[in-house]
Specification:
Helices cover about 75% and strands about 5% of the residues. The chain has about 130 residues and is mainly alpha-helical. The two termini are about 25 Å apart.
């Protein structure tokens, strides 16, 4: 907890915030792909994996143990890697352009780096 402008507030959680913002971007991309490009299969896979990242991070906040925390974040990392695959596939198949790809992949790579760091650090402190 920190005090900000005289108010007691929860400490900022960067990975939680970034994964939530990423999920919102994925939802918007899904809407674009289904409405404009009439693509339903790949986009659904990305919707599932891209929104799971943040959901698993939220689950990890309430982990029952250190091992459970690591396990949930490791699954979140797997979902982020899967999302990376679907985004690349959508780009290489022409459903999204280079600008869209670069923007999304930049956010995803940042999330991947954070998750890798958190999981690695958590394992070392066992």
């Amino acid at each position: 907890m920190i005090i900000l402008n005289g108010q007691l507030t929860m400490k900022e959680n960067i990975i939680k915030d970034k994964s939530f913002e990423f999920a919102l971007r994925i939802i918007k991309l899904y809407q674009y792909l289904t409405n404009e490009k009439k693509e339903f299969v790949l986009s659904k896979q990305l919707l599932r994996s891209g929104t799971s990242i943040g959901a698993l991070i939220r689950e990890a906040e309430q982990a029952e143990s250190k091992a459970d925390f690591i396990h949930k974040l490791s699954i979140s990392l797997k979902e982020a890697n899967e999302s990376d695959y679907w985004v690349e596939l959508l780009y290489k198949s022409g459903y999204i352009d280079e600008t869209q790809y670069d923007s999304i992949i930049s956010d995803l790579k940042e999330i991947l780096k954070l998750l890798i760091s958190i999981v690695k650090t958590s394992k070392e402190k066992r």
